[in-house]
Amino acid sequence: QVQLVESGGGLVQAGGSLRLACATSARTINTYNMGWFRQAPGKEREFVAAIRWSGGLPYYTESVKGRFTISRDNAKNTVYLQMNNLKPEDTAVYYCAADYRPVAQFMGDYWGQGTQVTVSS
Questions:
Q1: For residues 94 and 55, what is the distance between their CA atoms, to the nearest angstrom?
Q2: Which residues pair with 5 in a beta bridge?
Q3: What are the tens digits of pLDDT across the range 58-114?
Q4: Is the dihedral of CA 120, 112, 28, 100 positive or negative?
């Protein structure tokens, strides 16, 4: 069973930073590609970033390139999303996901419960 537990969300002013964390098991992080999605009120869930189980170049949606960084610490069984220069339009519930698909086709087969990120202007 794949379990994903997000943390690190909160309220931040525009231009600020937050780091989200997704804790999972050793089996999951060493087997699945991992990624982040987000869902803003009244909008569909959208892909944010993904990283291969073995590391390598991550994949980002265009709107977060240069501001967000996805990384993984396999020793801690945790995936991170460092979010810098946050904008009000980044406000959403952020979900951690695991998937076997390549990062460029990442859709998410397993999901965490989500963590709220609110960016004030």
A1: 21
A2: 23
A3: 999 999 999 999 999 989 999 999 999 999 999 999 999 999 999 989 999 999 999
A4: negative
Instruction: Pull the structure tokens for residue 5.
Output: 């537990």
Which of 13, 39, 50 lies closest to 93 in space, CA to CA?
39
Per-residue pLDDT tens over the stretch 40-63: 999 999 999 999 988 788 999 999
Of 71, 83, 86, the residue nearest 22 (C-alpha): 71
Nearest-CA neighbor of 38 among 100, 77, 90?
90
Residue 65 DSSP symbol: T
Which residue's structure tokens are 């002013």? 13
Angle at 120 between CA 116 and CA 121, to 5 degrees: 150
Neighbours of 92 (CB within 10 A): 22
Place of tokens 């997704």: 22
